[in-house]
Design goal:
The chain is mostly helical and 246 residues long. It contains 16 helices and no strands. α1 packs across α4, α10 runs parallel beside α13 and α13 packs antiparallel against α14. The termini are far apart.
Length: 246
């Protein structure tokens, strides 16, 4: 008799049970120091998380399609804990090579409804960056996310390009996204912009310097400070002075 295919619902139920069985309240409480907003952790260690992920993937690889992976993620993000939601994203990432462009709407939905902090937002490039490589026609839509009322969607648009510019890809788009967010109010968006700019500078420091000097006082100070971290001390001081408002 052919073994019954593992459903997304059963996989989510079993996976959540394993995560909750391996909870460590003390470790969970220690993670709060990294966040200003309240977060919910189970306190599952990295090694156990990797084990749970691998065990699930061994059971569904070659059996599930991206449809089941998305369904699994939708079930996992109903749990409030970071480990559950993050694992849901990682499983979807395993199936991105076969994903249709419509996956983008699922990613945006998760950013809007299932993230709520920088930690989960910063795990979405595992899905989004390879999806943009697979379907580059989606890039303008992600750029348009910079106009979203949700800071998590806007931060998601920024961090999606970090792994891409690290490969020297889509650098002009990264600069365009950064310039569209100079007026953002949230510090977490400013930090993400600075992070993205810093990564673009790794391949062309002179281009980054010209960009910073061109836009000067329009750039939030936090973004500037993050962006110039890899410049020599003297240049950092010069750029900070040149971009300082009155």
């Amino acid at each position: 008799m052919t073994p019954r295919k593992l459903s997304a619902r059963r996989a989510a139920t079993e996976t959540l049970a394993r995560l909750h069985e391996n909870a460590d309240p003390r470790r969970a409480a220690s993670y709060q120091r990294y966040f200003k907003e309240p977060v919910h952790y189970l306190g599952v260690g990295k090694e156990k998380m990797a084990e749970v992920h691998k065990d699930l993937l061994d059971r569904v690889e070659g059996v599930w399609t991206i449809k089941e992976a998305v369904r699994f993620c939708d079930l996992m993000v109903k749990d409030p804990h970071m480990e559950a939601r993050g694992l849901g994203f990682r499983v979807v990432a395993d199936f991105v090579p076969e994903a249709p462009p419509t996956l983008l709407s699922d990613i945006k939905r998760w950013l809007e409804r299932a993230c709520g902090n920088w930690g989960l937002v910063d795990s979405t490039p595992l899905i989004l960056a390879p999806l943009l490589e697979l379907h580059p026609d989606l890039i303008p839509e992600v750029v348009s996310w910079t106009e979203s009322p949700s800071q998590w969607v806007r931060r998601g648009a920024v961090v999606a390009f970090v792994p891409l510019v690290q490969q020297k890809k889509h650098v002009p788009t990264a600069y365009r996204i950064a310039s569209r967010l100079f007026n953002a109010e949230e510090d977490l968006v400013h930090k993400a912009v600075g992070w993205l700019l810093r990564e673009t500078g790794k391949s062309d420091m002179e281009r980054l310097k010209k960009f910073l000097l061109k836009h000067g006082t329009k750039i939030p100070r936090t973004s500037v400070r993050y962006a110039i971290e890899r410049f020599p001390k003297v240049e950092r001081k010069q750029i900070l002075e040149a971009t300082k408002g009155k």
